Amino acid sequence: MNKVLSLLGLAKKAGRLEAGEEPVGTAARVHGIRLILLASDAADNTARRAERFAEEGACLCARIPATKEQLGGAVGRGSCAMLALSDVGFASAIADRLAELNEEEYGALAERLSVKAARAAERKELKKQGKRRPRKK
C-alpha cells in the first residue's frame, strides 16, 4: 500500500491529482480525469457521488484499501475521502500496484487502464511524428 500512497504523493506534486469532493466533481464535469479513488472508510453518500462523477466524466472509479487519514497524509491534507487522477500514466501505475496487492479485485481495472495508457502513448508518438491515427470504418 505504501507504493500506492507514494505514487499519489508524486501525482500531487506533478499537479495531476485533485483531492476532495468539489475539485473532483469539477474535473469530472470537464472530462479531465482518468481515475477516481475512494478511501475504504468513505461514507456511502460519498461513494455514490464518486460513482456519479465517474459516469459524468467517463472515467473509472475504485475503492482502495486505505483510510481517509492515509490518503490525506499522502497528498498533504489531514484527511481525504476522494481523489482523482488526471494523468493516464499515473492512473495506470497506481492500478498496477493495486492489482499486485489484490489481483482479483483490481486486475480488470489495471488491464483497462494499461490499454488506455498504451493508446495515449500511441497518440503521443504519432503526434510527435506529425501523423494522425487512422480512423476505423
Describe this structure in words.
There is one protein chain. By secondary structure, the chain is an alpha+beta fold. The chain has helices at residues 2-13, 21-29, 44-57, 68-74, 88-101, 103-129; strands at 17-19, 35-38, 60-63, 82-85. The protein has a four-stranded mixed beta sheet, sandwiched between helices. α1 runs antiparallel to α5 (88-101) and α2 packs parallel to α3 (44-57). The longest helix is centred in the C-terminal third of the chain and has 27 residues, at 103-129. It is globular, with a radius of gyration of 15 Å.
**Number of helical stretches of at least 4 residues:** 6
Shape: globular
Series of secondary-structure elements, N-terminal to C-terminal: HEHEHEHEHH
In helices, the fraction of residues equals 55-70%
> What is the average per-residue confidence, as pLDDT, rounded to a whole number?
89
Structural class: alpha+beta
Please mark out the parts with pLDDT under 50 across 5 or more consecutive residues, or reply none.
none
Strand order of the largest sheet: 1-4-2-3
Question: Concise description?
Answer:
With 137 residues, the protein is of the alpha+beta class. Helices cover 61% and strands 11% of the residues.
